[in-house]
Amino acid sequence: MATEFVARGADLELVGIRKEFPGFTAIENLDLKIPAGEFFALLGPSGCGKTTTLRLVAGLEQPTAGRILIGGKDVTDMKPHQRPVNTVFQSYALFPHMNVLENVAFGLRQRKIEEPLAKAQDALKLVELEHLALRRPQQLSGGQQQRVALARALVNRPSLLLLDEPLGALDLKLRRQMQIELKAIQMEVGLTFLHVTHDQEEAMDMADTVAVMNKGRIEQMGAPEKLYDRPKTVFVSKFLGQSNLFVGEVTEQNATSLSINVSGSKLTVPKERAERHEGRIALGVRPEKANFHEDEAPASSAGLNIIGPGEIIDIRFTGVSNQYLIDIPNLGQVTVFAQNIGKSPVTELGAKVWVSWKVEHSFGLSDLPIDSVTESIAVL
Amino acid sequence: MKSFSLGRFALPVYAVIAFVYLLIPIAYTFVFSFNNSLKTNLIWRGFTLDKWANVCQQQGVCEAFGNSILIGVISTVFATTLGTMIAIALVRYRFKFRSAVSLLLFLPMATPEVVLGAGLASQFFSLGAQKGIATIIIAHIMFCLSFVVVTVKARVASLDPALEEAGRDLYGSPSQVFWKITFPLLLPGIMAAALLSFALSFDDFIITNFNSGSAMTFPKYVYTAAARGIPAEANVVGSGVFLLAIAIVISIQVRSAAKAKRLRRS
After folding, report:
1. Which among A93, A111, A152 has the least Cβ separation from residue B162?
2. A277 and A348: one domain?
């Protein structure tokens, strides 16, 4: 076999990838570079093209256009079995007619590597399943099957490991545990991981870099904290966590900040945190960055955005925090999270409150929410 | 006062009658294979093992039986191989006229055997083919094929395509993936199809009769012999095949029961 197998990960590069299926385009134009040894997550809703991207890298689908490079080597025309890539499938796809050990040894046997069973046993040790080596896959629990699938891929020491929502079928507790284990294994073996998921918490928790995908394109890519702190599009601001968005015309600006007018309220955002600096723009803030004030409006200051008064119309207790839904006339509904540390504002439904947040917590988006576009047309 | 229920007696009686009705021909065949018969095998003339011991002494019985086995095995091998290939193609690949092919494959099963047999016979006649074992095999492959496709197709449809993808992902070339993953997983379906094919072929009289010329198969031999009284040797062969089939079924049941038990224990 022509492929070389390395102990360390290799970088993956997708250049101008386009994938059309009869009747629709799954991926429009994708450029992506994943550095070696990185834990990279492709995050997006179902149907956004993330699984297709993964299958293209594995060689299970052929791109309509574009090139795929692994470790600098063009693998676009290689068959799946010729690529130094292994996949952990969503359904695990363990071979039901072989025991766990034979499943793990399969790839080694195919490549005629010496002592396949001993190496498979070692891989099972890594995922702490060596005591179940002689069981059949169907006798294992979901979490155990997931780990066998992981061992079966890892034992081959691929340059690149692809994970297709491998935690999707597990319950919440097991999922948290597997997330931690998966991350630990990735650190230990130092391979490049490409993880596809629709679970934003999972992506942010595990990945070094997250790419948010929507409708066959990457909307935004970066470290999880950066993506969360400074989303650039409406989709990212809503898919990765929650956001309160306000739409208005830019009315004034100076060297460092700009302000928009939303039904008479002035909201300010630092220029470096805004994608666009003129016209109608959307400004947002995360619910946990906002506070509310009872009785009277907070003293206005340059560093504070204040809206209100409004009325609390819903309170949801989620354990670590209370989620307040506040209806502000002419502005719409605003969500505020208040941490449950005993002294959080004690309020009840119907209370009259003002909402405020620091200017530096605002972010300006490059596009407008769809409902605000139609609204503005209605107003006109 | 007391409710005398007719149903309480009617059901067991009905069940016994139904079973007697079902089993009488088999019991007759088996019992009369031990009959010390002369030319005809209709009256009980005493117990003997001679017919079992010297089954081939009666002219033609063993030859016909051998022909039937040969025809059955060859048609099964061809029908199963071709049918499995067709079944995989029908499930896995999207091609033009796929649904039409699916439907057409169903037709031989729905067509009366007399019509199929007569139709084939006239084709062989116009081709000028010499009727014999070869024409019987061709006919049998034809009608077994549909059954194989239907049986194997169900198995292919229930096979998760991700398993084959995993095989390709784990460095298996297409042929390695087929022999190490697809084939073993389809094997139960393929075996069922092969057994069904063999049974259909071994059993067939109508189509065979149209296309056999002077070649003799076991069903045809029994049919011909019936005109002058079926020899007890035919009963011996029939009972033998029956016992063999029962033995196979029991051994499969025992094996799968043992396997289920083993799975449950671990």
Report:
1. A93
2. yes
